[in-house]
Design a protein that fits this description.
This protein has 148 residues and is mainly beta. It has helices spanning 50-60, 106-110, 114-118, and strands spanning 5-11, 20-22, 24-28, 32-33, 45-49, 73-76, 87-90, 93-100, 126-132, 134-137, 142-145. The chain is built from three helices and eleven strands; from the N terminus they run βββββαβββααβββ. The strands form two sheets. An eight-stranded mixed β-sheet has the order 2-1-6-5-9-8-7-11. The radius of gyration is 14 Å and the shape is globular.
Length: 148
C-alpha cells in the first residue's frame, strides 16, 4: 500500500463550528488531533477516503468540499472498510480502526441526498482511536498493520 497517503487534515474546534485545515498537526492518545474538539476515545479521529468522496460527488453530480463530511483526515489509496479491526500507521502515529463513522441527518442539511449516498458500504468513513502519538502532515504515508 505504498501509495496510501494523507491528502488533507481538518480540525473542528467546536461542535458544528467551522473547520480549520492544517498542513501539520500533532495527534495523541486520549485527545486526538491538537485543537480538535474532544470526542470519545474510539472516535478520536475520523478518516474519509478521497476516492470514495470523489465517487460520491460524481454520483450526485455535485462538487462539495470533503470538509462537508466533517472527517479529520482525507486519505487516498486505502480501502478503509477493510481496515476495521486493524491498525494504521500514519507517519509516526498509530491508530486502531474501530468501525464506521455513520453519516447523520446533517449531511442532508448540507445537500439533499448526501446522507443516502454516504450510507452504503461505509462510504462515510471510519473512526479510529489514537494508540501512539505523532506528528501528522500532508503526504504522510499510511501502512496497514494487522492489529496492535
Amino acid at each position: 500500500m505504498s501509495d496510501a497517503i494523507v491528502h488533507k487534515i481538518f480540525i473542528y474546534p467546536h461542535k458544528d463550528g467551522c473547520c480549520e485545515e492544517r498542513e501539520v498537526c500533532r495527534v495523541a492518545p486520549g485527545t486526538g488531533l491538537d485543537g480538535d474538539r474532544r470526542r470519545s476515545t474510539r472516535r478520536s479521529v475520523t478518516l474519509l477516503s478521497s476516492e470514495i468522496w470523489d465517487q460520491t460527488m460524481a454520483g450526485l453530480g455535485i462538487d462539495l468540499s470533503p470538509q462537508t463530511r466533517r472527517a479529520n483526515l482525507l486519505v487516498g489509496g486505502v480501502d478503509l472498510p477493510a481496515t476495521v479491526g486493524k491498525c494504521l500507521r500514519i507517519g509516526a502515529a498509530l491508530f486502531r480502526i474501530w468501525g464506521e463513522t455513520e453519516p447523520c441527518q446533517k449531511m442532508d442539511d448540507k445537500y439533499p441526498g448526501l446522507l443516502a449516498a454516504l450510507t452504503p458500504e461505509m462510504r462515510g468513513g471510519v473512526c479510529a482511536e489514537v494508540l501512539e502519538a505523532g506528528l501528522l502532515e500532508i503526504g504522510a504515508p499510511i501502512e496497514v498493520e494487522e492489529s496492535a
